[in-house]
Amino acid sequence: MDKIEQLIAGLSKDTQAVQPAPRPWLLGLKWLGAATAYLVVTLAISGTRPDLLLQFHKPWFVAEIVLLTGIFVSTALSAAILSFPDLHQQRRAAFAPVWMFALFALVLFFSWLADNPPSPLPVHSFECTINIFIFSLLPSAGIFYAMRQFASTHLRLSGIVAVLFAFSTGALWLRLHEQTDSIIHLIEWHYLPMIAVAALGWWLGKKLLKW
Amino acid sequence: MTATAALSGYYSPVHFQNGKQVTDRGDTLAALMQRSLSGDTQAYAELLQETARLLRPYLSKRLYAGSEVDDVLQEVLLSIHKARHTYDGQRPYKPWAYAIAKFRLQDHLRAHYADQLHNAEDLSELEEILPDDVTESGFNYESISEEVKKLPEKQATILRLMHREGYTSKEVAEKIGMNESAVKVAAHRAYKILRERLER
Q1: What is the pLDDT of residues B108-143, one digit of tens each?
Q2: CB pairs under 8 A, 24+ apart, for B117-123?
């Protein structure tokens, strides 16, 4: 009996019934549910911005929130698809966040054009990045832990998407909490760092999602 | 295990579940996997055998040595076993299995080339020292070979075979009855000693 046959005999001898993993959309919904609960609880504790209802009358604010939510949803679904070795044979869906980011960039550009005269810059700067980072730590740990239960074959990409998912939760929280309307500030201290931190996911994915 | 499968000893598209006759549809391997997930050991053994048969040519085309193919195939089968919960039997089996095989093959090749690169760096270190010393410090081939002779016998033999007679580390390993990795380690240590001595 050669090595391969021995291995097959060993593996099959002790095999037991296994519960197949849920479908990616169900898995993504589960992760979205957990992250939304976290977002709602933290918003309830920290409070929403006082002019939130008023802001929802502004089309560019609504577009920004809708697309940020789109990034939040698409990264969760993409992370779920990337957790399967064959991407659940839905390769295109795994790259949905790319389109969402492109649309988001477009909306930010138009918001910047519409921000005339420009809204005053807030007195703080990097504190926003730090707040988003701290807020995103728990979702990051959660999503990496959840993804480790599966078998990704795209470790680095999975890492990036996982970090983006966590940080989009953080960005949503701060946008609904902080009373800032300067697009320049938002781009500089909310959204660009979020993309920069995704580079960390490149490294984290390789380290944490190995199986 | 199903009654039909137990009697025939081979996979059958017709089997019984809870007393009802069930006919597998679609991909045979997908059906085997579905049965494996419900704990059918014979279906699982057959699935792994079929998978090994399916993947061996894929790996053989991409790997040089037969032993490497066996090693990677074992890794792939273990990975399939580990990740079997990510397959639900509702989509084609082959893309799933190939995705795992490709992932493990890339892992193997990455490790292999990293090792080769490490070895190449050792050689380049020595090459960097030798010409400089030959021109600047009056070193010639004889003086270097004298230094090589002063090394422990095993290290000297390895360097002589590799650098004077042009054998690869694998050939040297076969020639002197050592493991290839052990040859590389011994050569690396010898380079270090030589470098220290030549730099003095």
Answers
A1: 888 877 766 666 656 556 655 554 444 444 445 456
A2: B119/B169, B119/B184, B122/B184, B122/B187, B122/B188, B122/B191, B123/B191
ipTM (interface pTM):
0.86
3-class secondary structure, A169: helix
Mean pLDDT for chain B?
A: 76
CB A132 within 8 A of CB A170: yes
The pLDDT assigned to A36 comes to 97
Contacts of residue A44, Cβ cutoff 8 Å, sequence gap at least 6: none
The beta-carbon neighbor of B74 closest among A7, A9, A13 is A7
What φ, ψ does residue A70 adopt, rounded to 5°?
Answer: -60, -40
How many beta-carbon pairs under 8 angstroms link A with B? 86
CB contact under 8 A, B83 and A13: no
* E strand spans, chain B: 14-17, 20-23
The verdict on B54 touching A (C-beta cutoff 8 Å) is no
H/E stretch holding A83: none
The reply to whether residue B99 touches residue A87, judged by beta carbons under 8 angstroms, is: yes
DSSP β-bridge partners for residue B17: B20
The answer to whether A77 and A30 are in contact (CB under 8 A) is no
Give tens-digit pLDDT for A59-118. 999 999 999 999 999 999 999 999 999 999 999 999 999 999 999 999 999 999 998 888
